[in-house]
Structure formats: C-alpha cells, structure tokens
Design brief:
Layout (H helix, E strand, L loop, with lengths): L13 H29 L4 H18 L8 H22 L6 H7 L11 H16 L4 H24 L3 E2 L2 E5 H23 L8 H19 L1 H5 L2 H16 L2
Antiparallel strand pairs: 1-2
Helix pairs in contact: 1-2, 1-3, 1-4, 2-6, 3-5, 5-6, 5-10, 6-7, 6-8, 6-10, 7-8, 8-10
Subcellular location: Plastid, Chloroplast membrane
InterPro entries: Phytol/farnesol_kinase
GO molecular function: kinase activity
C-alpha cells in the first residue's frame, strides 16, 4: 500500500471503506474505555494505575487501526472522529452537564470530574490533532502520540514504584521515571515507524530513529520540569514533541 492508496476495506469505494474502518475503530475505543471503567468501579487496579493503563493503551491501540483508513485528508479526518468524540465527552462530564462516575473514576487522579477538562481533554485533543493534521505518513504524529502515551504513561508507573532517586531541579520527579519515559517513548516510536513502513506510509531510516531519540529525550526533560506541574504534562509533552519533531523531521 502506498501513500495515496484507498482504505483497506472496500478500496473501490473509499467513503464506505473509511466508515467501515471507523466502525471497527470505534468498537475498539468503546470496548477499551468500558473495560477500564469496569476495572475502576471494581477497584481491580489502584485509581492512578488504572488511569495510566488507559492513558497508555488508548492512543497506542488507536494507531494500530490507521492502516484501515484511506490516505489523505478524508481518511485522516474520519479516523480523528474517534478521539474527537472523546473531547466532547470529557468536556460535558467535566463541566457537570453529563453525569458519568465510571468515566470520572477511570480518567481522573482524585475522582474529581473537573480534572477531565484538563489532562484527559488535552490527551484527546493531542491524539485528534496528530491524527487529523499529521496522519500516518508523518513521524511527527508518531513521536507526539508515542511520547504522550507510552512515554508519559510508563514514566508515572515506573516513577511511583522505583523512583527513590529524585531529580535535583524537581523533587516530585525521579531519574527512574525520566529514564523509563525516554525508553518507552523511543521504543514505541521506532516500533510504529516499522509498523507504518510495512504499509508504505513512512520510509524507515537511521535518521528517523535518531530523530525519535532526540524527541523522546527532550520530551522527558519537559515532563520532569516543574512547569509541567503548574500546567499539565498532557499538554506540554505532546506540544514539545510536535514542535521539536517539526524541526528534527523537516
């Protein structure tokens, strides 16, 4: 498949193929969200761990379905509907217009619905933006989503468990967490480079691999900086990844 190919499903009728792909991807997203809502309600994981597992799996899993869509703006925009709907969902719940305690438990740190209009909404906006604007032919989309989902998600899990050695300029962050973030973000980025190259969407190269390493290193530094505590790492980490990626991959 090349950059101008039709959808994987019904390639002769791109619109039907894209909406079929949308239906499949929506089923995945709904099932995953439902699963973590149930684990949150039943207390299977600690609330913060439950939130981070959803944080890691939603975006990375969503990208696995990108090859089902057609290339170009049509496929990108239709695919972006999946995370785009979640922007509206978390906004309505966060503002109290819609009551959904299961979603609040699965996505918030402390069980406050107002948290959803910060981190979770930034998360959904990032994935929607990377999908609709950069799409699967751009390493910027790969770097942005992988450092947000894999990098930031794994950093929190590892940092809480093994983060005894704190970073001097931010005692809330640890060396273990930052190293885990670089490693996870980089490995996920390279993994998706190979995955998309199988379909002809990107051309794998050492230059791209090195670019992913640079972006993951800088993203980890941004995540460890005190400014992320003041604002939100779900906003600043992908912003740093996209801005630096625009320079590195130009």
């Amino acid at each position: 498949m090349h950059a101008g190919a039709g959808p994987f499903l019904f390639p002769e009728t791109p619109l039907a193929g894209d909406f079929s792909a949308l239906a499949i991807t929506t089923c995945y997203a709904f099932s995953l969200l439902r699963f973590f809502e149930e684990t949150a309600k039943r207390g299977v994981f600690q609330q913060k761990l439950n939130r981070k597992l959803l944080h890691i799996t939603f975006g990375l899993g969503f990208m696995l379905f990108w090859p089902l869509f057609s290339s170009g703006i049509q496929g990108a925009v239709i695919a972006a509907i999946v995370p785009g709907v979640n922007i509206i969902k978390v906004l309505l719940i966060g503002l109290g217009i819609v009551q959904d305690e299961a979603t609040v438990k699965s996505m918030s740190r402390f069980g406050d619905r107002r948290e959803l209009i910060k981190g979770p909404m930034y998360y959904a906006i990032t994935i929607t933006f990377c999908c609709a604007i950069y799409w699967r032919t751009s390493p910027i989309a790969i770097a942005g989503i992988c450092n947000l989902c894999a990098g930031d998600g794994v950093a929190d899990i590892i940092g809480r468990r093994f983060g005894k050695k704190k970073i001097p300029y931010n005692r809330d962050k640890s060396f273990a967490g930052s190293i885990a973030m670089v490693t996870a973000g980089f490995i996920a980025s390279v993994g998706y480079m190979y995955y998309f190259s199988m379909f002809g969407f990107v051309e794998k190269s050492f230059k791209m691999v090195f670019g992913f390493l640079v972006v993951s290193l800088v993203s980890a530094f941004v995540e460890s900086h005190p400014i992320c505590t003041k604002f939100d790492d779900n906003l600043l980490v992908p912003l740093a990844s996209v801005l630096l990626g625009s320079l590195v991959f130009s």
